[in-house]
Each structure stands twice: as C-alpha cells, then as structure tokens.
Amino acid sequence: MSGRVKGWCPGALTPMPSGDGLVLRVRPRSGRLTPAQMLGLADLAERFGDGAVTLTSRANLQLRAVAPADLEAVQADLRRLDLIDTDPAQETRRNILVSPIWTQGDPTMALAAELAARLAELPPLPAKFGFAIDTGPAAILTGASADLRIERSSSGLILRAEGMARGQAVPAARAVTRLVALAHWFAAQPGARRMGLLVGGGAHPPLAADAAPLTTPPLRPGPAAPGTCVAAPFGRMATDALRAVAVAPARPTPWRSLVIESASPPPHPQAITHPDDPRLRVAVCVGKPRCPSASVETMRLARDLAPLVPPGAVLHVAGCAKGCAHPRPADLVLTGRDGRFDLLRGGRPGDPPQRRSLDPADIAALLKDPHAPSL
Q: What are phi and psi of 208, to 5 degrees?
C-alpha cells in the first residue's frame, strides 16, 4: 500500500506540501480563538485556500491548498491575527493541548501561559512530542495525543507521563518546572520517540505514582459546560459555517469540534450540534487528489456511507495505509490501494485486509445487505 508517515506535522511557518498546495497548521494560543481570529481564518481560507478550515485531532486548525506564491501574504495575516510564532523552532515546541472545559478560577489558563512562556527551556524533542494541560473539573484529554500531562486528581494536580496510569502530586506553582525537568529526562533516553512507547518498553520516568486523574468522557456536539460544542463534518468546517459560529470565543477540541463559549450559535448545515448526526460516525482523510499519498477519492464516499453506519460504530475511510484521520482501530476500515478499496473489520488501515479491490458501489451494497456481517 502507498503512503509514508512523514514523522512531523506542518505549521504556519513550516508548511507541508500536498497534492493541492501547501498545508498550514495554526496552533491557537492557550487553546482559544477570538471571534476576530475565526473570521480572519475564514477570510484566509476563502482568499488563499480551499474554502474550508480543517479541525485536527490535536485541537489545531489547518488551511489547505495555499499556493507557494501566497505563503508570505497568508503568514502576514496570521501574524496580524496573533496566530503565528516568531520562528519555526518556537512554533514546533508549542505543541500544547488545553482542556476545552476549563472554568474561570482553575489553573488551566495560567499553566498553559506559563508553559508557552518557558518553551525555550525544553530540550530538543521529537516533532510530535506534546503536552496536555488538562486541569479543568476533570481530565477530558486522556484519549488525545500527548506525552506529558498536568491533570486533576481527587486531591489536587498531578504530573503524569503517557503510559502511566497514575501520576505524581504537584503544586500548581511547581507543575511546569517539574514538567520541563521530565522532558529533559525523556530527551536523555537513547532512541526515545514518544513517552508512551518508552514507558511501554519498560522505562520508569522519575515520578511517584501517587494518584490517578479524575476523568470525564470526551465532548459530544450539543450543550457543554462552557457553552455549545459544534463539530465539523469530517473535520472540515466551511467558511460560512465558521463565520456563523464566531459569536463568542471558541475552544478547539481534539474531537474536531469547537466549544463556543457561553453562546448558542445560529444553526448551520455544516456545523453539527446534535450528537447523533451520522457524519460523526465516519473518520476520513482528504484523499485524492489533495493528498499525494492517496490513490482514491474519499470525501464523496464518506458522505454517501455515513447514513449506513449504525449508531455506536466507526467507519474509517483512508486514502492510503497511513490512516492519518483515525490513529485508533475502527469497526470498519476502507483503505485506498491502486484506485480501489481494501476492507477490514476491526483494525487499522495498515492491517491485512479481509476483502481487496472493492469499488464504492461494492462497499455500499455490502453495508446495505441485511445478511452481511454487521460492523
């Protein structure tokens, strides 16, 4: 199967070439966007991109299809919107995931700001190495990608390394200092790529296992404690939908959604506010021709198949074996190969398929067949 994992993520200063132009990833500061920033991103996507803003599984936003000749103009506007860093090294280090359910008075915003201000103290780290400031009422980011986490336990804050079930109690005033020290320990381990892999291989970070985090389920579209959670169909929010929800500050989530603070945005067909919307059951990448690794068109198939996916199941439509849209196993996986699809039930795109070389009509017929094995 085609597709090679690049091992790094695009940024606004380090765009990634793709089949439709450059991909720029925007990391909102402290996990929060102002209405002016949302409107500015919508304008940029229309003027220089493909007419949509992508919400990612790391709670970032992406502009696609930017022409190299327009890059300088886009970066200038992102700088004006305070959505860009001073240099690529700073941008790469600012891989900070922030709880979208923080409340006024908890330490989340202060800790996120302190970590952002101290990024220069970090050692060289792998490009995908990230941090979670998950100190709202309970930890909600446990299923999202992060290597070091500051979370809340029943007795206070804890610092936890990915792969450990429990973390060490830490006062808020020392939490970031301890996190930086733990990042230095990680960087000193030979061949270390991700903290979870290191711990899974038997390494023991210098942390006491004092307490487990309090946890709460991921957000679903609809009313949420800070306001209203609005999801984007297949992770892509059209610019008119983004403008419609820009009625209050927003908090991007790793579930490809935005929490609109203290507001109920006006309804829009490309802004999902109901948790039972069938489009939420499908994970899909941009596919051909936008991604050079993909040999199949994916978005149209995802739209066609979404109503056929039963509640509670997940369909992953992958343009290639990398499986960028959904790193975890799915109930049904369709993986592009040489212009057609391989099918697998219960796995990842790189796993051996059970059926090979299907076309979209074959797949739809299988899902509609009442005698076929269920998802």
A: -80, 140
